[in-house]
Amino acid sequence: MGSPRVVIIGAGIVGTNLADELTARGWDRVTVIDQGPLPFTGGSTSHAPGLVFQTTASKTMTALATYTVEKFLSLEVDGQWCFNQVGGLEVATTEARLAELHRRQGWATSWGVAGRVIDAQECVKLHPLLDPARILGGLYVESDGLAKAARVVVALTRRAESRGAVFQGSTKVIGIEHSAGKVTGVATAAGVVPADIVVSCGGFWGADLGALIGMDVPLLPLAHQYAKTHQIPELVGRNTELSEAGFPILRHQDQDLYFREHVDRLGIGSYAHRPMPVDLSTLPGGEITADAMPSMLTFTEEDFAPAWEQCKKLLPCLETATLDTGFNGIFSFTPDGGPLIGESPDVAGFWIAEAVWVTHSAGVARAVAQLLIDGRSELDLHGCDVHRFEEVQLDPGYVSETSQQNFVEIYDILHPLQPKESPRNLRVSPFHARQRELGAMFLENHGWERPHWFEANAALVDQLPAEWQPPARDEWSAMFHSPIAAAEAWRTRTAVALYDMTPLTRIEISGPGALALLERLTTGKMDKSIGSVTYTLALNDAGGVRSDLTVARLSEDTFQVGANGNLDLDYFRRQSPHDGSVSVRDITGATCCIGLWGPQARDLVQALSLDDFSNESFKYFRAKKVRIGGVPVTAMRLSYVGELGWELYTSADNGQRLWDVLWAEGQRHGIIAAGRAAFNSLRLEKGYRSWGADMTTEHNPYEAGLGFAVRPQKGAFIGSAALAGVSDDTVTRRLACLTVDDGQSVVLGHEPVFLDGAPAGYVTSAAFGHTVGAPIAYAWLPATAGVGAQVEIQYFDRRIPATVVAEPLVDPEMKKIRS
Ligand SMILES: Cc1cc2nc3c(=O)[nH]c(=O)nc-3n(C[C@H](O)[C@H](O)[C@H](O)COP(=O)(O)OP(=O)(O)OC[C@H]3O[C@@H](n4cnc5c(N)ncnc54)[C@H](O)[C@@H]3O)c2cc1C
User: Fold this and answer.
1) Catalytic site includes residue 548
2) Read out DSSP for 531-590?
3) Which residue has its alpha carbon closest to ligand 1 atom 31?
4) Ligand 1 site: residues with CB under 6 angstroms?
5) I need a labelling partner for 763 at 20 to 30 A (CA). Which of 362, 649, 753, 803 fits?
6) Catalytic hit among 102, 127, 178, 224
7) Looking at residue 816, what is its pLDDT?
C-alpha cells in the first residue's frame, strides 16, 4: 500500500510548503486544490511583501521562522532568489522602545538567533535613509530578510510536482466528504476528489472551510494597509530589478510601521489604522491579476494619512516623495496571535494549518508533515494547537474582539502579565463575589478571572517581619505586582490561606476501560487503592512531556484528573476507545476547588467536620469524600505551595457556602484569601514545575527533574520505549533552580542565561521567593552546570549574577507537607 491520499486545500505559501514537506518524506499521493488560478491564486501570499523578522517571545514561533529562513535560502527559481538575507532592523524612537529592544534581543539569544542592539549611528550606517536625530538605537538581526513569497510558491510547486504531487487551480472546494467520523474527500463543482487526509490551508478563508464540517476555526480576516512610493532619488541605482533590496528590512514599532525596498521605491506597511474586519461575502470577484485579487481591497487613503506623516519623520527622503499604489490586504488574526494547527475533533483526517504568516510558513508545514507522518512534531506546538482554546473562546464575538485587539497591539510593548481589558468576566468561580469583596486584583486566563492578590491583605504588609519584607522592584517587574503577595505568602507559611484553584482543568475519566486507558497514557502506576492520588506524566512517543497530571482514583472505575487545559481533554478524548467503555468528561465548570494550605489547615478543617483529618487517617496524596461545614466535598491531601493542606472540591452550587464556612471558622486561625502571585512564588520555592512554561514535549522527564514520576516497571505506556536507557545520569541538559545573587533582581521568564560568558539556556519561570528572601529562576541549562555553578541572566541590558542551587529551596525533607 502506498502513502495516504492527501488533499491540501489552498496553494498559498502554507499549502505549497506542506505539499513539499510531505512529498519530501515520500508521500506522493498529494493533490493541492485552489479556487484561484495557479500559481498566483489571489490569496494573501500572492501579494505578501515577505518581511521575515524571526524574533518573538515564543521559542516555538522563533524556531518556525528560523526553519523558514533556512529553507527559503536553499530555494531559487531559474536562478532567482527566494530569500534575500538583507537583515532586519527594528528602531527605537523612545526610551521605552529601546529597553524593549534589549528585551527582544534577549529572546533572540534565548532561542539561538544572533542579534545586537546597536546605537543610532550604526543604524544609520546600515540604513542610511533613517533620520539619525529621530532614533535612539535599534535591534539588528543579520539573518532576517525578505522572502519572495510568490516565487517560493513556484519553487515548491515545481519541486512537489516533480515528486508526484498534483496541483489543480481554479477549483473551489464546496464541501468536505466524510463517513463514519472519517474524512473521505472534498467536493468541487467538477466532482469529488477522494482523500484519506484533507488539510485546509485556506488562509483567511479558514473559518468558512471549517464551517463545511462544523469545525470552529477561531480566526478573523482583517485588512492591513500596504503602499508603495514612486521612485525615491536616494534609492536610484542602489538595487537591480533582480536584487530588489539591499538595506535591512525596517520596523518602526513606535508608530506601527514597517518598510522594505522595491528596487528604487519604498514599500510601507501600516498597522496604525483602525482594525478593518472583512466580511468574506463582500470580496471582489472577477479576473485575478497582480493588481486585482480577492485578498486586495481598495486602499483607503484617509486611514493611511497619519502613518504617512510619521513615515516622513523617520525617513526624511519621503518628505518630497509621493505614494504610487496601495491596497488594504487581507490576512488572518486569532484571539492570541498564534497560528491554528490541528485535526477536527469530530471528523478524523480533517486538519487545518491556518493563520500562518509567510515568516513561519515552512516551519508550520514541516510541523504538520511530522504530525501527519510521525504522529508528533519535534517542536512543542501547544501555543499553535487549535484545541488550546476553551469553548467560550470559540464564540465568533470573542474571536472578533480579541483578534482586533491583537491587531491594535501588534507592535505594542506588552508585559507578560498584562491582561486583556475586554472581554472580561467570561468565566468566574463560585467564590467570585467573595473575592471582589476582598478587593481581588483579577488577571485573566483562558476566559477565567483569577485573583493575583487581595487588597484586603494590604494592612498585613506593615506587619511583615523584617526578613519577609520584599525588596523594591524595578519598574518593569513591579507592573501587575504588589508587595501584598509577600504578606499572602507569609500567612500561607505561618497560618492558613484559601487559594481559588477552580480554573485548573478537571477531567473525569470513568467506565470499565478507564484504568486501562490511564495506564496506557501515563507514566505512573494507576492501579492503586481507591482514594489514592498519583502525580504522573503523559508523554508522547518520543518520551517528551505532553502534560503533567494529578490522578485521583475515586472509585473502581472513576478517576478525577487534574490537567493543564483543553489540550489534555482533546488528547484523552482522542485516545479513548470508541466502544463506550470510557467516558471522558470536562467537569471544570460544574465544580470548584479551594486550596486550603498552611500549618493551621488541619485545625481549621477538623473543626468543621466529623471526618478524620489526622495524619494517620488522611495521608499525603490521598483523597476522601468528606463533609465540611455540611458541604459535600472531595478532599485531596495535596499542596502546590509546599504546606500542609487539602484541595477541596465541590459542585459549583456548593462553592460559595464552602468558602463561607472556611472563612468563618478560619478567623480564629488568621485565615486570608491569597492569589496567584503568592502561589507562584511558593510553588517555585517548592520546585513544582508548571507545564508549558517549565517543560513541554521538547523535554523528557529526567531532564525536567520529573524522573520520579516515571515507573518503568509498570510495563509499556506511551513514551516508555523512548525512555529506555534514559535516566538522571544520562541527560545533557536540565531544568535547574537558580537564585539571584543580589537578593533583589526579579526576572520574569524567557531571559537568556549565560554560562562562562556564553549563552547556555533560558529562564522558564521566575518569582521572588518570599520565604528564602531571594529571587528564584528556573532555567534550562547544560547538565554540566551543577549546584554551585555561577551564571548570569540577561535582563534588558544588564547581566544579573545567579547561582545554580539545590532544590527544592523550602522543606526538602517534606516535613511540613507530610506531617
Ligand atoms: C498587506 C499584507 C502584508 C503582509 N506582510 C507580511 C510580511 O511582511 N511577512 C509575513 O510573514 N507575512 C505577511 N503577511 C501575511 C501573509 O501574507 C499571510 O499570512 C500568508 O500569505 C498566508 O498564507 P496562506 O497560504 O495561509 O494563505 P493564502 O495565501 O491566502 O492561501 C490560501 C489559499 O486558499 C485558497 N482557498 C480558500 N478557500 C478555498 C476553497 N474553498 N477552495 C479552494 N481553495 C480555497 C485561496 O484561494 C488561497 O490561495 C502580510 C499580509 C498582508 C495582507
Assistant:
1) yes
2) TBEEEEEEE-TTS-EEEEEEEEEEETTEEEEE-SSHHHHHHHHHHS-TTSS-EEEE-TTT
3) 12
4) 9-15, 33-36, 41-45, 48-52, 172-173, 201-203, 205, 209, 224, 226, 269, 295, 329-331, 354, 356-359
5) 362
6) 224
7) 87
